[in-house]
Design goal:
heterodimer; A: 115 residues; mainly beta; 7-stranded mixed beta sheet; 4-stranded antiparallel beta sheet; 11 strands; B: 116 residues; 6-stranded mixed beta sheet; 12 strands; 0% helix; globular
Amino acid sequence: EAGVAQSPRYKIIEKRQSVAFWCNPISGHATLYWYQQILGQGPKLLIQFQNNGVVDDSQLPKDRFSAERLKGVDSTLKIQPAKLEDSAVYLCASSLRGSTVDTQYFGPGTRLTVL
Amino acid sequence: GNSVTQMEGPVTLSEEAFLTINCTYTATGYPSLFWYVQYPGEGLQLLLKATKADDKGSNKGFEATYRKETTSFHLEKGSVQVSDSAVYFCALSDQYSGAGSYQLTFGKGTKLSVIP
């Protein structure tokens, strides 16, 4: 079974530029998550999709971050414009149904450096 | 709100030593508990989980028991190897986010280094 795919793996941009990350979840997984992991901390949820609908984006900085999940499969996360404090690893995860007992499967992440 | 507290690292052990990484949690409901591991340069992988009180999760020689009375889920391994060097994250799933979905809340992670 193929895992969660993410691209790119690394990105370096200057502040005020824009950047986009792509995620392809495990086939058949209804729930998709984007996390931000700042160095030395645990992942923090940014947004959660159930199929192609948003179920929680309360921690997404909506003035600069946006995300979509087309046709309930792939997802993109965009930052525009980027700030220095956005430097982090962005993780995508998926789970079968999003229930409390479900396992979330994580992709390798995209390491973003904002200069 | 929900929270997870892990022992601070880094933890450095010699090969074949006994490992304990403490994890305690605060949750409003009846969470499921997880340990994830992040090897250098890789993504998070599920190590083990427990979904109800007194359950023991185990994998690759690691164990953790869901203790509701002490709200703990400590990770243990009897004999660590160099290949166990990684960052370990304790997490809980409890917060309902709508549409039948729940969220993970993570601890800050504990870095383990095992030396030969």
